Amino acid sequence: MKKIVFLSTVIVVLLCLGVAQLEAQERTPILVIERVSQADSLVLTKARPHEPRQIPAPKFVLKSKNSAFMMTVGGWANTVVGYDFKNELYKTSAGNSFIPADIPLTTSKGQKSDFYINPLGGVVFFQIVGLAGTKNEISAFIKLGTGGMTPWLGYSRIHFTWRGFTFGQKLTLMQDEYACQPPTIDPQGPCGDISTVAYEINYKSKSYGGFRYAIALDMPTYYASSGLYKGKDYPVFDDKDVIGNANELIPDIPMWIEYQKSPTNRIRLTGVIRNFRYHDLVDDKVRNLLGWGTMLSGNLNFWKPLTFYAQAAYGKGIGNYLQDIAGKPISFIPKDSEPGKMKASPMMGLVFGASINATPKLQFNAIISESRIWGTSEYYKDYKYTLYACANMFYNITPYLQWGVEYLWGKHVSWEKTKGVDNRLQTQLQFTF
After folding, report:
1. Backbone phi, then psi, for 30, in 5-degree steps?
2. Is 224 part of any domain?
3. Cα 151 to Cα 282: distance, rounded to the nearest angstrom
4. Which of 119, 133, 236, 408 has its CA 20 to 30 A from that of 348?
5. CB proximity list for 9: less than 8 A, separation 6 or greater
6. How many domains does the chain have?
7. How far is CA 314 from the centre of its chain?
8. How far separated are the first and last CA of the chain, in Å rounded?
9. Is the pLDDT of residue 201 over 90?
10. Would residue 210 count as lying in a domain?
11. What is d(CA 194, CA 182) in angstroms, rounded to the nearest whole number?
12. Which of the four pLDDT bands, split at 50, 70 and 90, describes residue 234?
């Protein structure tokens, strides 16, 4: 980290010295630092990814005289203060991320509530746009964040875009970043969100009368059961491994088509096809299994202050794309009737939300969500479904300072009918730059 900071400082100093020398020679500035104009903002916003926790618009920009080259640095830092009631999710989850799947199913007396102060939320981003306004415009984006867990910054996004193609580490194309949810203090967001970061190459088309399409190749990430057969139908295989790992050779392929009447009146149909490769130890064969998913999402804004968000996703074997199921070994499980073979687990995610911009400075948001899986009770008993509800308010005190208050409710239900419930009340003060 110290090396990165030192190298960044050296680059900035050398750049400033170079600009100063050119100014002295040319008597006119080659690069200038100035407040972002409306025209600059349009270029930078177009080249900046849209995310539920919106990346703030930069306040200043380093650019060439003709604005063909632009570079900005921005970000935010916040402190969150909150209470958990009925459970101790803060201690068992990822910092101040509210993850219903992590709500403990059993809690000891004295551990049914918790108070916390988390000053570790922060993001820094770098954005560069070259040949702005031309057909060869190229933009690069780097985002570093703490994740709300440690004081150290780590890469969370790093990608570049040219002629409709994007290459790098980014939110997957499977995610509808405009419709998945309104903003929240909670870094995680609704349990039923289709949301994950992937190594990806994608292409997004230009608009044809409001219609657009996109397709991508994702680096696949799989979570499967251990392959230990339970002997439910074939006792001879009790306590023996019947399934082994095999390297994946085919990328995930997400794609979508959408119609947009305006940025907040739109509908999108998304799909993903994925292959799961595994070793059948019974027949000693490498097999392939199809996973797939589909999602309908969009926004509705018939009255200017009010915007609705909706997302309904269903598929088989898409657990790593679903917010609450990601990381659990239940996307692909052994097929009870045929030892040595696997099957894809059916699952769904639902999210519905609304935002009201009461004034230019004041916004209210509400979200409900569900994530559910079927047919995995024999292999992973701790997760059947989760529910999530959120209501919050954000007030922009100044262009640099925002205050927010949020209430969260979550429920975690297992296949054994045990359940955990948590309520959270938290407030945030966030500085943006």
Report:
1. -85, -45
2. yes
3. 48
4. 408
5. none
6. 1
7. 18
8. 21
9. yes
10. yes
11. 14
12. low
**Dist. CA 305–CA 278, nearest whole Å:** 51
Beta strands in 399-418 (DSSP E): 401-413
CB 310, CB 297: distance < 8 Å = yes
Cβ-count burial 78-106 (b if 16+ within 10 Å, e if not): bebebebebbbbbebbebbbbbbbbbbee
- The structure tokens 């090396």 sit at 3
Report if residue 25 sits inside a domain.
no
Our measurement of the distance from residue 271's CA atom to the centroid of its chain's CA atoms, rounded to an integer in Å, reads: 17
pLDDT at 62: 87
Single out the residue of 94, 52, 59, 99 nearest to residue 75, CA to CA: 59
Cβ 265 vs Cβ 300: under 8 Å: yes
Kindly report the average pLDDT of the chain as a whole number: 86
Q: Which two tokens stand for residue 290?
A: 């199809």
Q: Any bridge partners for residue 197, and if so which?
A: 171
Structural domain contains residue 272: yes
Other C-beta atoms within 10 Å of 123: how many? 21
Q: How far apart are CA 173 and CA 214, in angstroms?
A: 8
Phi, psi of 328 (to 5 degrees): -95, 145
Q: Which residue has 């002295």 as its token pair?
A: 24
Report the run of H or E that residue 4 belongs to, with start and end: helix 2-26
Measured CA to CA, the distance from residue 163 to residue 202 in angstroms comes to 11
In the 8-state DSSP scheme, what is residue 205?
P
Q: Which domain holds residue 41?
A: 36-432
At 92, which helix (H) or strand (E)? helix 89-92
- For residues 173 and 198, give the distance between their C-alpha atoms in angstroms, rounded to a whole number: 9
Q: Classify residue 322 by its DSSP letter.
A: B
Beta bridge partners of 143: 125, 157
Q: What CATH code is carried by the domain that includes residue 79?
A: 2.40.160.10
Please give the Cα distance from 288 to 272 (Å, whole number): 16
CA pair distance 423, 409, nearest whole angstrom: 5
**Tens of pLDDT along 52-82?**
766 667 788 888 877 788 889 888 899 999 9
Residue pointed to by tokens 């943006």: 432
Instruction: Judge whether 305 and 358 are in contact, CB under 8 Å.
Output: yes
